[in-house]
Amino acid sequence: NLTSKTALKFLRPGFIDKRYYAIYLAETFHYTFHNSRNQALVAARKEVMNINYMKFCLKHAAEETGHEMMALHDLKQLLSLDITVKDLPGPLDSTKALSAYLYYIAEYENPLARLGYSYWAERVYQYIKPMLSLLKFVGVDKKAMTFFNEHAEIDADHAKDVDLAINTYAKTEADWNAINGAMLTSLRLTMAMVDEIMAEFIKVKDKNHESRYRFLK
What's the predicted TM-score (pTM) here? Predict the structure, then answer.
């Protein structure tokens, strides 16, 4: 599948360079910008729901607010450029799809469904250590990896909070199915984004193809 092909290219010696990480950071800014907002949207729904779950959603949203600026900070450090939000191209279609899906489940699906995304997103960093090691190998400085490094520390506590929320508020088979479905779907959408990031990076490597990321040379 596409993700398997992406992984093979990523691991090929000499294929990846800093520009891949720059594109990844740009898209990370875009989807992370929406995470606190679609999380808070769950608590803003009109139907009656567990008050403590509403408080959990709002607290989690508040703690996620502004994390997209870590990605922008890292992009500036990586390229040694004073990049602003206005310098970023709009999100890729796959990035839009991920954010749109999270808004949809937050507003229209089982209120607990959003926990399915949080369940894997808050613990993903332990599984991408090989990628982080590769980034260091291609010359990415630690000061350009705050989103991963500092975010990982924050999310270690968030993962415990999400586990507790799931086990506290999921009462029915429908609740568990909604959480599981959102987990699998959001993960597939994220992998589609990773594939599209790789496709954009390949365009950057092809000097005959104009890149949408104009801050890359």
Answer: 0.89
